[in-house]
Amino acid sequence: MVEIIFDSKFKQIFSKIKDKLIKEKIIKQISKIKRNSVVGKSMRNVRKGTKELYIKPFRLSYAHHIPSATIFILDLYHKKKQ
Length: 82
What we know:
Elements: E1 3-6, H1 8-16, H2 20-35, E2 41-42, E3 51-55, E4 58-65, E5 70-78
Parallel strand pairs: 1-5
Antiparallel strand pairs: 2-3, 3-4, 4-5
């Protein structure tokens, strides 16, 4: 079974979101990542080793550690602040 660990930065940003529809979309995408961790776009350069998934208007950044079967949900940021 895959374990999901949420970073404190993600928790803080997620708690500030007021729109319930966007929160539901984010939760749905996290469950999608849990089923298949290769759904996101692989990042390069400084963020190598992480993946990113677009959830309008946010980007969800995560990393998958295969040996321990752990997915780290790292960050949720607005597309314009990229």
